[in-house]
């Protein structure tokens, strides 16, 4: 079957939502989809530092059911449909110290943010996608779903492992109805937050920023590629996966970690 693709405008006419879309990989993903012609909606608790007329912004706390309901209602009321959902929001705010220092609140917050937020948004938008008989859902997970750093991110890693499993299950349920569901599991991404963390480590340990970066890579067991990912590299993979070029892909987890995970 021969198909002709216009890579520069391949998402024209599509409406996309990117959660956590004001910073880091989320911001890069939003820009990538916008450059491909999509109408892009972004969500975060706080508006972006620099407003972008190309993106429609919704302020919401997606770690709560109320926040996800607000986003679903506003998107459908304003745009009438959603073609692409990128569940990018995630992160860990738990303290270091391993299992013993974590309480129920730490676990609940991580699960609400990293697992239940995507589940709730999927539940809100899937009926419309199924009615359209088309749609793409991307779950941004993490290699920590398979390679947990127990010292400081145990709840986060467990929630991301659950997201990977859930994503596969959901894909099996909706594939025949025209909706594709995929998982992207990045390794370490060098965002502005990561840059600041490297500066703090360097200052506190009296080492260079480059040495601080190497120390983190060593803690991960090494990155064969020799560096963290850039947000734009994650965005490029997502841009491909939501495009017509990836029309036969569903249910797959795409690991983009520079070779960090040492097993097959």
Automatic annotation (TrEMBL):
<comment type="similarity">
    <text>Belongs to the short-chain dehydrogenases/reductases (SDR) family.</text>
</comment>
<dbReference type="Pfam" id="PF13561">
    <property type="entry name" value="adh_short_C2"/>
</dbReference>
<protein>
    <submittedName>
        <fullName>NAD(P)-dependent dehydrogenase, short-chain alcohol dehydrogenase family</fullName>
    </submittedName>
</protein>
<dbReference type="InterPro" id="IPR036291">
    <property type="entry name" value="NAD(P)-bd_dom_sf"/>
</dbReference>
<keyword id="KW-0560">Oxidoreductase</keyword>
<dbReference type="InterPro" id="IPR020904">
    <property type="entry name" value="Sc_DH/Rdtase_CS"/>
</dbReference>
<dbReference type="GO" id="GO:0016616">
    <property type="term" value="F:oxidoreductase activity, acting on the CH-OH group of donors, NAD or NADP as acceptor"/>
</dbReference>
<dbReference type="InterPro" id="IPR002347">
    <property type="entry name" value="SDR_fam"/>
</dbReference>
